[in-house]
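Milestone M4 deliverable, item 7.
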Amino acid sequence: MDKKRPVLSISMLVSNNRRDTIEKCMESLVPLMKAVPSELIIVDTGCTDGSVDIARKYADKVVQFTWCKDFSAARNAGLVECTGEWFLYLDDDEWFEDVSALIAFFQSKGKNKCDALWYLQRNYDSMEGTSYTDAYVGRCVKMTPETRFCGKIHEWIEPLPTKILKTDVFVHHYGYVYKSEGDRQKHLERNLTLEEEAVRENPNDMRMCCQLVQEYRVARRYEDALALCKRCIADVDNKDTSAFIQYLRLAVPKIYKEWEKYDEALFAFEDLEKNYSLLHQTRLGLFYDKAMLFGCIKQEEKLVQTFLRYLKEFNAPKKAGEPDFPVMDFAQYQSDLFKQRAVEYAVANMICGDVYSYAKEVFSYIDWEKNTKPKDMLAGLFRCYEETGDVSLLAAHLPTVLRIPDMEEQVYGMLHSLYEKYQQDDEKSMSLLEDLESLKLSSGNFPFFHLLYTERKGITKERDIRDYYEKSDRKYDEEVALLLLGKSEKKLLQYSEQKKIGSITGALKEYIACAKAYADAAYGPEFWEKENPFEEAGLSGVPGELGFAHTMERTLEETNGAKFGEGVKQALKLHPTMLPAVRVLLEEREVLALAEQLKAMIRAQLAEGKAEEAKEILSELAMMLPEDEEVKELLGKI
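Output delivered:
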């Protein structure tokens, strides 16, 4: 084989009114063409608005073609100039999101094991790009001497491939978004004219008949669409599994559904399933659209049941030798997007129809990372848990959901809302806490629920409190902060009783921190920053603990003895219970003041070499302040 032969030939038709998309298309191909030996062939179909000049900057060759209302003729004009091992064609109104998977394919030996690569065309309904469908397209094939395009419109490549590799690579396609209704009608009429002409010329061209049926549906010409379907399949054996006949059979109930003739649609769906041999693709379409029909007639449970049949079929291996065909919307049922939409519809209708017994099975098919509405699905998951009490729903999914960026806050918010809803029901709230405890999740706000659980059980440990403050965002912690404030007060009074000189100030600061946390949760963070928040906020019922802590926080910073004493008096008026702690605090301050004098004396004695005298004083000081780090340091020098 000639070493200079490109691995990939890319061909594109260029027409007018695509200046806003063609450069995006070209730029999306640049990484692919740099990484894989490639050539780009542009076919100019009579462009007059400068679009072809943009494409020319990227192209290896530009072919001039006189438009003759035949898309295959135009495509073949580019194809004959291509010399690559593989051939890829696309339109000037679409561009690749990411070509890294294509690069990997063309650089691998895997490209020798298939004769076609399918990727997804993401078809948008609006310029905002918020609504779309995905469908596989067969636009990348291995080149053979027989490779050619067929069909005046909606052209396709023959010979049809047999060994197909599907990839999640996709192109953005805005070809079905129109600037006006007039533009839409003009495009529709052009297609209908060419398709009707092609069908008149060759009434037995089933592929073109399928395209015309599709166009009639878009135009809402349902009688014409139905008549053409019935004419094409009138004498065909029920066991015929050719792709186009299968498409036409499936189109019949879909036409009735779009026509809002729901009884006829349901009968046609059931007839199709009972009386005909169906391809895997056809079964997928049948179950998906039949489920959507049940949505139209408000039969939620049947919708859920039928979508479950679709999901099972989606995961089932197709029969050996059964072909796949990228025929219009026939191929979209095989995309992950449609699989996840099936889950979304099923979840919404479980809730609407109160049929929660299917929850576990439906959610087993969800792919949280690929789902387009993960927040809605999470809300559905919690609703199903609330209705069924089945904690296995949370156990199976929360660990995965918590790994998805930006989903942690959603999980915790819903859990908090559920807990708050249950607060007046001891049995339900405890059941929720026990379920969350069983999950053994430790990230984010789960320490909040663990702390509530241990508090209700009376088994709270210091580590539980520490984990809560280290890991929780403390957004919903009024109850916990009040709990911790009580524990901190108990600890402070205990230290006071034991006269733990050297530890009271630290315990008091911890108490103040707990009080501040409670104030933040109960009244907002700005509350604590005010000079006198109780008077300014008009909160006469504020707990005395907060007043004591707020006053003492400022008093502890006071170096003036008289002002310190006045601050202590004001604090005790607000919360007299703290009198024992304040007494020990005053004693500690006196001891600490004396300790500073003794430390200075010890340092002077050590400097004079009087180690024995220093040791005697230091021994007494160590008894007074056994945890003092400076005292320990001085002892180490003797």
